[in-house]
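ugh ok fine here u go
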Amino acid sequence: MLERYLTAASTYAHSIDHLFILIGAIVGFWLIAAETMMFTLIFKFRAKDGRPTQYITGEEKHLKRWITIPHMLVLVCDVVIIIGAITVWYDIKQNMPVADETVRVIGQQWAWSFQQPGPDGVLDTADDIRTVGELHVKVDTTYRFELVSRDVVHSFAIPAFRLKQDALPGRTISGWFRPNRVGTYDIQCTQMCGLGHGLMAGRIIVETPAAHAAWLLRNSSPSEAPQQAAQSPANKGPTTIAEVRR
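structure:
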């Protein structure tokens, strides 16, 4: 249902959506049930002429069950939600699949910068590509990210991936994603990190294998870019790269 209105561009986005639907359905049911019962009792036992007020302590057995039974059912629903939440959490946060590539995500006031391997596929080598505000990835590829912060607490979020992970100074936090839909998606910082927090945005560009290979070659070996671009129909125009040099 949510998929009709929200873009889901990673393999685990639907799992998170389904968990939210489950929580919404359970909580919504009990909200409607409780409000219906409350207003029914209000109108049924409202003050009327000639009828004395009835004082109820709530200790009567036939009245206690109106509290006990719903209470037990709510606890059962809580267990269902907890099981669903733990399952999704384990699949996303604990059970990290084997990565095809590794990228480094760096948060700082107030921009996201990225370091990813060049054509050799190995991070921290001479052909690494460094960009600011823009990360290029390949569709149907599992990426492991190393998230760091250079100053304060940031939060790396890609809503279309249903990905959100805090970046803490002095720590390297690992996570993963597998994009399954070609397109350009927003990157946000969802942790208040200073005056420029609202400007700390970026984008992740999910490309086909051919387009991504052309992008890698173009940005790691500029002299070969015209030839590769001419061979790749997926590239319609130039890509502007801002490079962070250490």
